[in-house]
Every structure is written in structure tokens, then in C-alpha cells.
Amino acid sequence: MAYGEYVEAQGQLHEAEAALAEAASLGRQRFSAVRRYASFLERLGRSEEAAAFLEDYLRRYPDDFTAHLDLGFIYMRLDRWQQAVGALQQAARRPELEFMARSNLAGAYMELRQIENAIQEWRRVTTMGPGAEYQQYLQHIAIAYENLDLPEQACDAWQSFLDRFPNSILGAERVLALADRCGTEEMKSRAALRLAALSPELAIDAALTPRLEIAGVARPEAAITPGSTLTLEVWFQVVRAVRHPTFVSFSLQGSDGTVYPLISEPDAVGTPPLWRGDTVRQPFAIRAPEVLAGGTYTLRIHSAEEDGKTVTLWPFDAVDAQGDPE
Prior knowledge:
With about 325 residues, the protein is of the alpha+beta class. Helix content is about 45%, strand content about 20%. Helix 2 (about 15-25) packs antiparallel against helix 3 (about 35-45), helix 5 packs antiparallel against helix 6 (about 80-90) and helix 11 packs antiparallel against helix 12 (about 170-180).
């Protein structure tokens, strides 16, 4: 099996397939040989073949719940949702796989428009523990209730989500929107106050990475002098779970197009894991260049990720060391 992976890395795909297929044919999974061979087939774009391979394997070893989980994921990628439901139900029978299986099973039910079944599975997930990785699914329940046009149940679910993620702008926005339909005047007033407390002074709503959006910033100082330190708060909206540090940097761009890289701390967003639907409000300290001509500049934030972007945060004036615009 190790040889198969080695020759695959060398681009010798036919030899790699032969070695991995041989390892996977020895019977019940040993050192994840079956999983690795199915994954190899998927990497080659042969997902239907990978599914057929796992189906055959499970006819011989139906109690291999990890293989059921792998097959369920392949079915999902093939949009074979009803078959995905069956495979994931089998995988959920194994306690250590239940969380992953049920959270994805709910998604398969949503694709089939079996929304009540999806809600049931997500509720099971939220009872598995008090941690954020489980409680994040309260927002999925809320969205499902909105799809069913049940505003009271949706509002209760969003409120439960806010209890666990109290900084979530998304949660506050949805509670306020639903309060207009089913809440009392006091509830509407409180929801509006909460949203006002959580919202940034300047809303931006721009993607920084596929997992993080810039929700907005607080107003920085009106001017910056050479060598001075600027403090700035940035709101990050988590649109997909973030499990590794997201490194960021800042720059100034002058009106003439000149870009000045800046030293800043901290150099990453929050403390992973960060969960979908939550909001991270983070201050940064940014050092201005020692030499900086007076004029108008824009402050920009950059993601270090390969698919990251640059987002403009704020325009402001710079002044010279004596405090006079040049």
C-alpha cells in the first residue's frame, strides 16, 4: 500500500492502481487499504467506480461502518441522495462515527426536501454534547424551520443559537426579522437593540476567504502620522467552519497607487476552531511606515491563503510628523 502511494506521487498511476487494488483485495480493511483505494479512484475522477467497489466490499463485510460512511460521502458527491441516506444511517450505528454521519444525513434529507427528517437528525446532533461543534447546528434547525415557514419555531431556534454564540450578527439579524412576524413589541425592541450592539460602525460585507467574510470595522483614528500605531477593530463573519489559523496582513494604498506593507499584531483571526454563523470581533494594532507623505490613503486587509482576497477597510488622511498635511 505504501508502495502504491509512493508511485502515485511519482505520477505512475497504472502501477499505483495495481498496488492499491491488490492491498484492498486482501479482505477486511487493513491499514485503511479499502478506503485508500476508493479515495484513489475518486482522485482519478472515477467516483462511480469507487462507489461500486465499496458496494461490493460491503456485501462481504456489512459491519464495516467506516466503509458505509465513505460510501455515503461518495453518494453525496454523486448527488445520489437516497442511497446516501441509507449508507449514513448504517454508519451512524457506530458511536464514534455518529456525529459525522448524522450531521451529513441531515444534509442529505434537506436535498431530498425531507425537512422534518433533517430537523430530527440535527436535533440529535445538538444533544451529543454542549460543545460548539454540536451546538452550531441550531442554526441549521432554524433555517429549516424558516424553509417550512414556521416563524415561531425558527425564532426559538435562532434564539437558542444566539444563547450559545452571543456575538453572532447573523443570529441577531434573523431574530429581528422573525420578531416582525411573530414577536411582541418588547421582543422587537430587544432584538433591535441586540443587533445594534453587535453590528460594526461601518458595514462592509466582503469575502476575505471562502470561509470568512469581513462584516465591518469600527471607525479608526481620523489621521495617522509616520511611525504611529493605529488600533482598529474588525468584525469577521464565519461562513464555513475554520479549523486552522487564518493569517492576515495590512497595507496602506496611497491615492497615487503606492502600496505600503504594514506591521500588525495579531497576525491571525481568532482562535480556531471557528464555527459557521458566529462572528469574531478582533482588535488589531498596526504600525504606520516611518516615512509617509501626507494625503489620502486606504487601509486594506489581506488573507495569506492561496484563495484569499484583499478587502478595503477604511479611507483616512495621513499627516506629517508635525501634524500638518503635506
